[in-house]
């Protein structure tokens, strides 16, 4: 297969770069912006880079290779990237640091143009479809010292077998599909990540079985729209079915049977594709966490229409009701955008209304950020920044009061907690997470790390709970 050959070629480049770097004691620094999919991509980049003889450093000033894995979902990431690139100029002049920039932002021409113009000392620019070719790109720079741009517009293939360096040895992310077909009118993702492509179930199962063998307890399945897994035209034509897997629901059921894995999470589903089989699978699979992330984006039917979300306020609320009735102990988290073009006070009130009704466990709130090339950017009735911020603050206030109320419900209960190790803020204490992804801090022996234990919740503190071990 072509994809396998391509990975073999890259393995040869890894070998060549390793030879060049031999005994040089080189270091790399990586900055990852954006979502968990990008973090998973960075784990693959780190896997390749470390194979090529670089060790990680947290100080970019001492790095021989600096890599930015960018996100373009909101504007603030752009400011961050250009700020960092500016800082690197002097360091590059002094140390000859190789600068590489990859990820979603590099799929945007106005950004790569700006880099060529204002930061011409950047060595490698690579896109979302050419990540697997990083060893080749790096080799070319090391050999020829020319600048290089490796960005393609056509959808990349699904490459398997890249080395990977995971950031945790307890929880792992597994990308199950790439790209998005939904074209929500505010969102740049479909333009920079291409159309939906699902990974073959065999490859996903193999990866998770390997993770289980290595002792991982929790996996998070990743995709822009996980419940359309295997639903793209390409897969429908092939009528793929592998060991009973032909949909997202059947994938969950199969993973639920993998010994060693104890928790399964997934992000993000789209409410319009949340079919009954997925609800039933969540209800019946004991390892699938009962916290479901269900992006709302707006509570107003008008705004949802403008956003091209393909559901109404009522449909969203009905879906939540159905899920609550079928899945005992269900909790929900969500994403909300405030200040999308055309959003009136009334529309915004609808968003607050849904938040009040659903009582989310967690809300990721965003101020609408205009993205070049999306329909949202071309809409005439943009909301002034000051109103967006006012609405954001109002929503934040409501969400925080709900979280506080929600937290109260935990006090006095017993929760199953996956222990992650010593707490960063206080190494005397351990930290872990409940099924509903709440952080719990408690006193205990470090040997409990990577185990699921029962903890009694004794108090709540907005962003974390305090627990204690139950003495039998
Ligand atoms: N502005 C603000 N937030 C956005 N998101 C996506 N595009 C934009 C944008 N242009 C948010 C959505 C999505 C989350 C990952 O980022 O809420 O679910
Ligand atoms: Fe963007 Fe919508 Fe696709 Fe999510 S579903 S990645 S918000 S276009």
Shape annotation: globular
CATH H level, superfamily name of the largest domain:
Methylthiotransferase, N-terminal domain
Number of individual domains = 4
Numbering strands along the chain, what is their spatial order in the largest sheet?
2-1-3-4-5-6
Overall CATH architecture of the largest domain: 3-Layer(aba) Sandwich
Number of helices: 15
- Residues in helices, as a percent range: 25-40%
Structural class: alpha/beta
Written overview of the protein:
This protein is of the alpha/beta class. It has four domains: 2-150, Methylthiotransferase, N-terminal domain (Rossmann fold, 3-Layer(aba) Sandwich); 168-289, 2-Layer Sandwich (Transcription Regulator spoIIAA), CATH 3.30.750; 293-408, Transcription Regulator spoIIAA (2-Layer Sandwich); 414-469, Nucleic acid-binding proteins (OB fold (Dihydrolipoamide Acetyltransferase, E2P)). It has helices spanning 2-21, 36-51, 76-95, 109-118, 134-144, 189-193, 201-213, 233-238, 248-255, 276-284, 301-306, 313-326, 345-358, 375-378, 385-410; strands at 26-32, 54-56, 65-70, 98-103, 124-126, 148-150, 171-175, 177-178, 197-198, 218-222, 263-267, 291-293, 331-338, 362-367, 414-422, 430-434, 439-442, 452-460, 465-469. Strands 2-1-3-4-5-6 form a six-stranded parallel beta sheet, sandwiched between helices. Strand 3, helix 3 and strand 4 (98-103) form a beta-alpha-beta unit. The longest helix is centred in the C-terminal third of the chain and has 26 residues, at 385-410. The relative contact order is 0.08. Bound molecules: 5'-deoxyadenosine and iron/sulfur cluster. The site of iron/sulfur cluster (SF4) has 10 residues, from helix 6.
